[in-house]
Amino acid sequence: MLNAIYEDTKEHMHKSIDALKRDFSTLRTGKVTTNIVDHIKVNYYGTPTALNQVGNVIATDATTIAITPWEKNMLGPIEKAIQEANIGVNPNNDGNVVKLFFPAMTSDQRQEVVKQAKAMTEKAKVAVRNIRKDSNDEVKALEKEKSISEDDMKKGLDMVQKITDEYTAKIDETFKAKEADILKV
């Protein structure tokens, strides 16, 4: 019974780390990635559609993203969607391709992105603590139902805390790696 709770706890905490990594992928580092435009939706014949579903999105170099629409008439809606998304750059439309030129990040911008990463990290830690609380409640419920002894309950709570500490450390490592990536010039 307790082992099932431990496995469930680990699985949920692992998902929290995966979500943190997905959040981190939307942050800008020194090198531009196409993840910056992943959340942008384009009006495709009345349907909000992901940008990468209406054209080819590539990072041509460290500061440029090029979007080549599969249909020429999508240039305008793509341009409009990028402007509305307010990602910090204006789209340049040359009649075939929409290009986004990102200026090199200043140290202030890098610090601001690090703050965003810290907020995302804290959100992941809160999620892990909530999972710990749920798991502890399950362990206490087993003891209340007399399915396990009081000693087993204490061991169970200790094990849940060890798992929590392990995943909190993993979250901190993930943040440190992202912080280094953001601050690298």
Write a compact overview of the structure shown.
The chain has 185 residues and is α+β, with helices and mostly antiparallel strands. The chain contains four helices and six strands; from the N terminus they run H-E-E-E-E-H-E-E-H-H.
Helical residue percent? 55-70%
Count of discrete structural domains: 2
Residue share in β-strands? 15-25%
**Parts with pLDDT < 50 across at least 5 consecutive residues:** none
SSE-based structural type: alpha+beta
Strand order of the largest sheet: 3-4-6-5
CATH topology of the largest domain, by name, is Topoisomerase I, Chain A, domain 4
- The Rg value, from CA coordinates, equals 22 Å
Q: CATH homologous superfamily of the largest domain? A: Ribosome-recycling factor
Could you state the order of secondary-structure elements as H and E? Answer: HEEEEHEEHH
What global shape is seen? elongated
- Give a quick account of the main beta sheet: strands, pairing sense, barrel closure: 4 strands, antiparallel
Please give the alpha-carbon distance between the first and last residues: 50 Å
Number of strands: 6
pLDDT averaged over residues: 91
Number of helices: 4
CATH secondary-structure class of the largest domain: Mainly Alpha
Describe this structure in words.
The chain is an alpha+beta fold and 185 residues long. It folds into two domains: 2-26 and 106-183, Topoisomerase I, Chain A, domain 4, CATH 1.10.132.20; 34-101, Gyrase A, domain 2. 58% of the residues lie in helices and 15% in strands. It contains four helices and six strands. The chain has helices at 2-25, 75-85, 107-144, 150-183; strands at residues 41-44, 47-50, 55-61, 64-69, 91-93, 98-101. The strands form two sheets. The protein has a four-stranded antiparallel sheet with strand order 3-4-6-5, covered by helices on one side. A hairpin with a 2-residue loop joins strand 1 (41-44) and strand 2. It starts with a helix and ends with a helix.
